Input
Amino acid sequence: MMAREILQQISEIRARRRAIILAHNYQPPEIQEIADLTGDSLELSRKAAQTDASVIVFCGVAFMAETAAILNPEKIVLLPRPEAGCPMADMITPEDMRRIRSEHPGVPIVTYVNSTAAVKAESDACCTSANSIRVVSSFSRAPAVYMAPDQNLAQYTAAHTSSPILHWHGYCPFHHALQPDEVLRRKEEHPGALFLAHPECRPSVLALADEVTSTSGMLRFVKESSHERFIIGTEVGILHPMGKSSPGKEFFPASEKMFCPHMKMISLDDILHSLETLEPRVSVPEDIRIRALHAVQRMLHLG
Ligand code: 13P
Ligand code: SF4
Output
């Protein structure tokens, strides 16, 4: 089938099914182009919580679709390629979480949304890269806060809150791979360019950044900035929406290695197939969902 025909069919079935297509900022350009909403993890969770659509087609990785399913037990949530996972989410298990809880009594656990539903269910609150400081600060009366699974987000948050922070040792393989010497080389190649980094980068990289923020935070920053040139320290998929929303500005990836293959699995064909068959569905066992919902809602209530 020609791309134009696929697009036409997607829009027909989307309307008939009362479906909404959500896509993360790292998705391939053609997926972002047909989405009803693109955004960072926080924006997509908010949209998933508010939509009155009957079907949510989630173009992202499994933890994002699971979050939509946690928030919408009555809706059909589709992840067109269920094998699209997040390696960081798999770096901690519910058993690890229970051990942390018993080793640190009285210490609330704040879990990055890049985690499985079963891990969220063991948490006091979730956070994203856009609100980790706000969420951790809400526990200011606790003796300390434990953050899981991302060591880098935890260290970044610790530097911006007064709470003592303990943390798990997970990481994103594609953000953690970026080294300061690579950033310094890019800065030499592009003098005067501002360096933006995602909080999943290691602390020695964040120390070189002019701005540390989530993927949508980066989109807003470059649009509002009077600067024209930027080195981008996050997954390269962000360059598509960046070029679109800030035409005429120049963007240089901090490293070509910052490519997340899990975010590139879904094709237009997969979306069409999912809309036709209403498969593959994402669902979360009710006992886990209820406990995970509590942690996700605490995050969403904090704004
Ligand atoms: P954002 O929440 O900033 O979109 O990041 C999600 C993610 O997976 C980063 O690797
Ligand atoms: Fe997970 Fe990293 Fe891919 Fe984000 S970029 S989905 S943290 S593996």
The chain has a mean pLDDT of 97. The two ends are 43 Å apart (CA to CA). The pocket of iron/sulfur cluster (ligand 2) is lined by residues 61, 86-88, 114, 172, 174-175, 200, 235, 260, 262-263 (CB under 6 Å).
